[in-house]
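Note to self: keep these together.
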Amino acid sequence: MKDFSPEFNVSRKESTGENRETYWKNMFDFTRLKVGKQKVFTGVIETDGVAMCIHYRRLKADRPVPSSIVSVTKHEDEKEADCATQKVQDNDFVVGADPGITNIVTIAAPKRAEDGNDGNSRQKGMRLLRFSRARYYRGSGVMTARKKVITWNSGMKEHLEALSEVTSRGADFNAFREFMEVRVAHWDSLWEEYQKPRWARLRMNLYCGKRLAFANFFSQLSALKEDESQRLVVAYGAGRWRTQKRNYASSNDKKVQGVRTELRYDTCR
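Structure:
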């Protein structure tokens, strides 16, 4: 411990929080983590031997930001202003987006004068555009890819079933040893199959298909602008769902974050 940070000594009563921060920074490269300014490291790190979980605490608005956090995020202030923080101009085409479960995103956009009012919108002068989950699966090629995976894995059923019966999780040495023995026994057969170029092409096609599905939807949204010079501005909030299903809310929070990423990619250009 002293080799990494000589000023940190657990036997000294005058060891301060600043010294502890120095010690942790010498051990781990915190600058690589994407952490907001209003978060502070708690001094707790969990690991299962494979991955690490570094705990941060969100500060309240009235609390001062520690100097250690300011120094880490100082370079972020020098970057160009993000489109999400830019002010809305009078000529911007502003729409509202709400993520959901059945519909990945529902967008309320103002109607143009020549479109009229068909009575299908919740508010007069507004129209709703829905990007359903079924449309996303069809447009991105997820359904087609799923059928291909089932067909390609038909010859690997024996190996996959053997791997499904063991796990590397937990602290039981005998269980982990059994997992490694099964993994080594089936590794050559699995590697021979999954190194085929068709799997790499499938992953790339899925990646491009997902981006294309969002791009097509936002192209439809961009077509509603009255003028091509208008900037498309999407307003969205923090969408979360409460359900009795285990891990459902957390998994859908990731989906919401994915929608926000696509919103920024397709509108901030």
